[in-house]
Amino acid sequence: MKYWDNLELSAGLSANTGIRLIFAAIFFVFLLSSQMFSYAKEDSSGKEVTVKGVFGLPVGNAIFKGKSYDEITGYLKGMGINTVIGVPLDEKLIVALHARDIKAYAEIGIFAGEEYWIKNPDSRPINSKGEPISKQDWYCGLCPTQGWLRKEKLDTIRRIVRDFDVDGVWLDFIRYSCHWEVNKPLLEETCFCSTCIEKFKADTGIDLPSDLGTAKDKAKFIINTHSPKWYSWRCRQITDFARDAKSVLTEKDPRLELGLFAVPWRDGELDNAIINIIAQDIKELSYYADIFSPMAYHKMCGRDINWIGEISEYMRDKTSKRIMPVLQVMDLSGEELTKAITKTFSANKAGLIVFDMNTIINDKKQEVLKAAFNRE
Ligand SMILES: [Zn+2]
């Protein structure tokens, strides 16, 4: 965003000279060429960097026992890893990573967590039957309009960037409730709690007939009568959180990057569940997020390896941002992991994130990852 701000400023000042407008136009063309045709991040020497990322850094794992941070980060460097997402919040570790030129990003779950259902039952979403949603396996989604919850999460992000020298923050569970990570996800419309309904009315000016007494009746009326406004309003609740998170980062340092984990569904798929259920409008989110990470768990989604590159390209076209798909290591043989990494690198120059480092170590796939990362 800062480049666009500079451009506007530059164009405004030069309105009566003409010459500076020409420079602005040249700069604009330069921007287009650098932003649209190259999605890899450049390092300080101008060289494009392909992210070879891992999620998590399990410093407590047996293989790191007795090792110093310098030794652990040296080990990562040897594997070809240049980015850690979900870094443990330990300043000495982050300093050690940076000393090896490895980027360190924090990760924070936003609208999920059973502890919130216990702490404040208002956080449990209400479905279109007017009932609180059920826990799905380990997953407990949260109502995104709870003001106290949004504030708590933003305060946590503020504290993270104040206390730790991270390169940015990745938002996880930045969506409406849905346990999508299964073969046949339950596509349940939420949230029709009183906070959501009142906020929807206030934000849109839509009034509900006074004879609608129950949440179920109100849900039915809203879906039948105002569904386009309802679905776009829901997306707005998610996008606004990303906007607020980005401004917390920018307040601290405009160079801090905001990443987010995206559900890998396209518009129209599953009755347009990416909008109507998940409420991730990636085009709108791209105004605030710097990097999108589609959770491209191809095996779980019943797809082949090429799909990882395809969904990345789809998101890149929609957002014009860097895309770093997440590859799930679990259930992949060493050969499949090598193939997935190699194919994804060739389809997506910005790079990828392997999920997760703990599984890599426990499945003894370090050598596979090392070979694949160092070959590129
Ligand atoms: Zn709600």
Describe this structure in words.
With 376 residues, the protein is of the alpha/beta class. The chain has two domains: 1-37; 43-375, TIM Barrel (Alpha-Beta Barrel), CATH 3.20.20. Helix content is 47%, strand content 12%. It is built from 14 helices and eleven strands. It has a nine-stranded parallel beta sheet. Helix 1 (2-13) runs antiparallel to helix 2, helix 6 runs parallel beside helix 8 (215-252) and helix 11 runs parallel beside helix 12 (334-347). The longest helix is centred in the middle third of the chain and has 38 residues, at 215-252. The model is unreliable at 1-15 and 29-38 (pLDDT under 50). Zinc ion binds next to helix 7. Zinc ion binds at residues 125, 143, 145, 191, 193, 195-196.
Alpha carbon gap, first and last residue: 30 Å
- In terms of quaternary structure, the protein is single chain
* Structural classification: alpha/beta
Main sheet specs:
9 strands, parallel
Overall shape: it is: globular
Low confidence ranges: 1-15, 29-38
> What is the CATH third-level topology name of the largest domain?
TIM Barrel
Strand percentage lies at 5-15%
How many domains comprise the coordinates? 2
The total beta strand count reads: 11
Q: Into which percent range does the helicity of residues fall?
A: 40-55%
Number of helices: 14
Mean pLDDT: 90
Q: Considering the protein shown, what is the CATH homologous superfamily of the largest domain?
A: Glycosidases
What radius of gyration results from the CA coordinates? 22 Å
